[in-house]
Amino acid sequence: MTTVSQTPHGVTSRNEFAELHGVQTLTFAKALTLAMADAMAADPSVVVFGEDVGTLGGVFRVTDGLTRTFGEDRCFDTPLAESGIVGMATGMAMNGMRPVVEMQFDSFAYPAFEQITSHVAKMGNRTRGRVRLPLVIRVPYAGGIGGVEHHCDSSEAYYVHTPGLTVLTPSTVADAYTMLRDAIASPDPVVFLEPKKLYFAKDTVDLDALRARHTAAAPSTIGRAVIARDGTDATLIAYGPSVAPALAAAATAEAEGRSLQVIDVRSLVPFDDTTVCAAVRRTGRAVVVAEAPGFASMASEIAARIQERCFHSLAAPVLRVTGFDIPYPAPNLEKYHLPGVDRILDAVDELQWEDA
Amino acid sequence: MTTVSQTPHGVTSRNEFAELHGVQTLTFAKALTLAMADAMAADPSVVVFGEDVGTLGGVFRVTDGLTRTFGEDRCFDTPLAESGIVGMATGMAMNGMRPVVEMQFDSFAYPAFEQITSHVAKMGNRTRGRVRLPLVIRVPYAGGIGGVEHHCDSSEAYYVHTPGLTVLTPSTVADAYTMLRDAIASPDPVVFLEPKKLYFAKDTVDLDALRARHTAAAPSTIGRAVIARDGTDATLIAYGPSVAPALAAAATAEAEGRSLQVIDVRSLVPFDDTTVCAAVRRTGRAVVVAEAPGFASMASEIAARIQERCFHSLAAPVLRVTGFDIPYPAPNLEKYHLPGVDRILDAVDELQWEDA
Amino acid sequence: MTEHPERSAQAGGRGTTFLLPSVDVVQLITADGAAAPAGDHKADYPMPNLETLLAGYEQLVIGRRVNDQAGALVRQGRLAVYPSSHGQEACEVAAAMCLQPRDWLFPTYRDMVAVLARGVDPLEAFASLRGDWHSGYDPHEHNVATQSTPLATQLLHAVGVAHAAKLRGEDTVALAICGDGATSEGDFHEALNFAAVFHVPVVFLVQNNQYAISTPLVHQSVAPSLAHKAIGYGMAGERVDGNDLAALLAVLGQAAERARNGGGPALVEAHTYRMQSHTNADDATRYRSDGEVAQWVLRDPLVRLEKYLSDAGALGAADKDRIAAAAETLAKTLRDGLNATTTPDPQDLFRFVYSTPTPQLDEQGRSLAAELAATPTGATS
Amino acid sequence: MTEHPERSAQAGGRGTTFLLPSVDVVQLITADGAAAPAGDHKADYPMPNLETLLAGYEQLVIGRRVNDQAGALVRQGRLAVYPSSHGQEACEVAAAMCLQPRDWLFPTYRDMVAVLARGVDPLEAFASLRGDWHSGYDPHEHNVATQSTPLATQLLHAVGVAHAAKLRGEDTVALAICGDGATSEGDFHEALNFAAVFHVPVVFLVQNNQYAISTPLVHQSVAPSLAHKAIGYGMAGERVDGNDLAALLAVLGQAAERARNGGGPALVEAHTYRMQSHTNADDATRYRSDGEVAQWVLRDPLVRLEKYLSDAGALGAADKDRIAAAAETLAKTLRDGLNATTTPDPQDLFRFVYSTPTPQLDEQGRSLAAELAATPTGATS
Ligand SMILES: Cc1ncc(C[n+]2csc(CCOP(=O)(O)OP(=O)(O)O)c2C)c(N)n1
Ligand SMILES: Cc1ncc(C[n+]2csc(CCOP(=O)(O)OP(=O)(O)O)c2C)c(N)n1
Ligand SMILES: [Mg+2]
Ligand SMILES: [Mg+2]
């Protein structure tokens, strides 16, 4: 793999991102920006492109400042064509670059579907590992933002079913930074799903500590779930935008005397069977929570695997609380569609406690 | 909905298809051709188009004779562009036609993915039922034919996860006819998955009886699974190309003294919970068999639903025998990938019979 | 299968440049409201009569009022979002006016003014922007497709609608609108090629408003013009001043009638400008200068037509009052309608996904009903 | 960001027809093997020197032999499938010859002869057609991308490779091949537009062999020519006799050097003919006449170059023997290699999907290993 030592047009101004240090209160979006900026500073082969990511800084401002800091060769707008973006990224990755491309919204990645499934996912295997594609496809996804049609799809099922793709989705500000850097560092293509409704969520993080992971080659977050909250009675398994309602449900349940554990899967592929199965074997009950329509979804997979692997530990079936099997609804109806605290707690109530 | 009473260029020659009657030995492919021909004869709004479907009759000859019989206005070649084909079909369906389009191979439907997910699947819901799209997207799918890359994908998961699509896949010659006619008659868009390796399988069917269903408005096959073989010890749940190995496994098992039931799901969406759950509740054991990679697949969904709905009837976890989570392999390796009799029987053996 | 006049051109080389747009962008009324000097146009584009122009002017004023009113309603939180066509109203109005009732219009998210000019009920049309449902009107009522968000996808639907009509021997025309940005999408290419190969009556109107959100045209295309893309499909292309309603009516009218009479599809590029941000969620000052915008204020489509009609004695004070009143009536309808509270029925979520809900959707609908019955607040948290 | 010579054309109209192809298709050697009369070409295309033509002729002969040998191996069941470029060898050879070793070639399934002409090991290249693995060679070894099956997708990869090189200040050129049918795909459009907008050094070579499987060109496009599509991207287009190696070398060579020197991308349409069926699985007699095929036999690329070189005294009996021997050696390599039995390792199924197999793939690999250990036949039934 060729590595770029210096781009022809170098850094065009001071690196405003490098100046941020120590404990900081950041939005999720800003953590993502910092991850790209730090990766770009560390490795000249990292380039960012997509629709409106340059001057505008992206419709969610996730790439804001990258063109200013790194120049137009490192962060640039493309013509409006998603297959073009992913296809060009594929070629750039074949030739020594590490492209990080943005799809403006979940549904607008669909024109790139052939490039993603037939090339991005398959190139490494097709060439027996001789051509790896270290590229990241960032996809703002899921709902809860009152978005109009085509702006709120939870499209993860399409990607997780496609062998060859790594599929990640952070749910915390710290993970937004760490996981995006892990994604950019990955030798394999990553579909990086960013829950839109978390973009402006804030948290306080120690930026120095977060950065240190990547210089010290800390273990990657890829393939590792985290226990977001411990509990003993049942396990809620969630990811991305559904971690927050799962945690809220656990908090409510605690008040009602039930101790719910919450797992943030965060790495959908590879999936962390070890953490999930160990947890469920301990609690004996599990509810999977996800926004996407449930049919043949990531949630189906989690439920299917758990019952396959933990059957004799289960006191009740693995239940799913997911979006309905409908197109994502218009803003005024989305509250009925999204898995919320009540619906999660209803499912927990159905876990046949009387039998236990 | 406007209905066409007569196309400007009518039938150009005698209808060779209408001349076939009574008991016939047909290939699966020919049954599909007959279904289209009969639907075209019955309803002038039915049109067939796609790549090489006209003069050539399709690369699998499934449309052979349709142009000759019904003229170039009713069955025609398009430019080589799948999004174009599905997008044009969408517009034609908006304007009173019932298009039946062919995607040449599974992977070559991917360029049409945006049209399928963002329009075909959503138009009816978007317009509160005012614009229904009675169109059929025929997709030769799955493997077992020694095909080169991109010619053997089992792509059903992408469609079944997309609300608004009906997804059908016949496994017998009779169902090939009946289900394609039901698909064409459906007011909703249907993704019609044709197992390539069955195209030249033959069976003897009573064509008059098959046809009579459609004049007598017999109950649709959409949403209805069938018991392909009865049995009492465990239920194998399969569809499309996997029904044959499931039946073969059941035959082998019988010789070994184990009675396996085989369900042919055939209608993936809507799914026939009633038939499947009744069966599994009776046998208490289930193995799902499918060619596609197992992760987040139709097989995951079936396993997840069964354990949700039949938990207390299950003597063992619902197991899955699926393709591996890899890109479909090159011809000389596909035998290792495809779910075969041995692998199915191994799974049956694992159904914890000692506990029973 | 079909006659293709262009096919005779198959063997030709530069001699086929009749497919290329005129050297001069077609303009009939200058930005100052005067009759434009004759340009080097490949076709004869006569000035529409005053009656037509007056009717068009009325629609322009109404369109502008709709844009302004919708902007206000967004600021008041009554609409989720509004992509304004302020400055592009001439394209909007011409797109609607050049069609017959039996024809079809394929609009984008930005083409609300064209949708209303076709006669669609304004409150039904605004239902989507209020967030009640993805599309609020019946496309069959006025042959107006749903406003398309996925860029360029609707161009193919227009080809299909036209192809179906052609197969039935009907003389329906479909006019499909897209933006300059959308011309980069694969579906644009496939739609133009299908239209040309099947020789169907579709007019493709590209509203080149110079930006795709923040992306200026120069990052979208380096072609001599977007209309030059037509030759690659064996289709006639034309460029027109998109702020000149008269020129638009002449060019689009001719393209539509040519298509109706079996002359095949055409590509029309209208030069215009998006005067406001992409939507209210956007901030155009991040990527373009006030000076640039100011240049385009001088080319406003309303001002020039008002001047032209007034000078021609075709627009008097009474006309102006009548038109202002009509615009105000529509604005009031929007205000009243959109200020009223609607309560969408949650069961609608399940009703329309299929013609008959699947057993699974029935089950999900019952479960939501039970949940809502148990939580009297009416929603899950 | 980049200099765009074409941008100055942005405002122009028909004056920009320099982007259009020459009126006459570029030909330097006639079908009869004579030097062609000067055509009305927009550029000067000098005849390549005899040494170059002789080297090219050798590759043509080898290419023809590869096509014939592969056909025979298919009939003997040693290859699963072979899409022959019989009749198109001049395009294949020119595509390889106009590039430097540091340049990249993006071939399709039909371009085996070009792949071999770049130096790729023949048995590695044929591994995919034998069915051992999807791609058998290392793309980085000769800068030859995998042969692409999904039509037009590889054109975008070529743009990416060229863009990466350009950003690093390297003068690498990428040449991407596709067929006439592939020009209808959305990715063709997006690739040409990206190449033009980013002004990257890519030469797009369309082998217009008149058919996409059974679909003749007239159902694919009604454009004046496929090369005319270039103008829609602000790119230069050219048409060349695709059975004339000399003309191909001149046109592609000029396009490649122009691209290398910062002149941007180009679209070259080569007129040729697919002499055999689409693949062995196809039956071309279903959709075209013997008479049509016979016409093209007269335009064979080998025959005319042999005549031209012989007449010029540049191809003697010794040359012919040497070339025939080289072709026969390669044919024998193919026969021997492909007749030998290979036993792919089933564990390879899991090794390359990711750089490091996931725990799930490890598990699946172990389970397959256990299964194979239990069933000594080596395969599940
Ligand atoms: C396939 C697709 N990709 C991206 C988007 C997001 N998006 C919405 S509008 C827009 C810009 C469109 O520009 P243009 O076509 O010029 O139309 P305009 O907004 O200027 O009217 C973008 C990128 C989309 N709607 N569809
Ligand atoms: C996206 C896609 N759609 C369909 C196919 C199936 N297919 C393989 S080759 C072919 C015809 C291609 O014609 P052309 O581009 O002219 O190339 P040629 O085969 O003539 O070299 C088709 C339809 C494909 N490979 N990829
Ligand atoms: Mg625009
Ligand atoms: Mg061809």
Report on this structure:
The complex is a heterotetramer, with 2 copies of chain A (356 residues) and 2 copies of chain C (381 residues). By secondary structure, chain A is an alpha/beta fold. Helices cover 34% and strands 19% of the residues of chain A. Chain A is built from 13 helices and 14 strands. In chain A, strand 10 (234-238), helix 9 and strand 11 (260-264) form a beta-alpha-beta unit. In chain A, helix 10 (273-283) packs across helix 11. With 381 residues, chain C is of the alpha/beta class. Chain C folds into 2 domains: 5-339, Thiamin diphosphate (ThDP)-binding fold, Pyr/PP domains (Rossmann fold), CATH 3.40.50; 347-381. Residues 1-14 of chain C have low confidence and may be disordered. The interface between A and D is large, with 53 and 44 residues. The complex binds thiamine diphosphate (2 copies) and magnesium ion (2 copies). One magnesium ion binds at residues 179-181, 209, 211-212 of chain C. One thiamine diphosphate sits between chains C (110, 149-151, 178-182, 209, 211-213, 274, 278) and A (51, 80, 104, 108, 111).
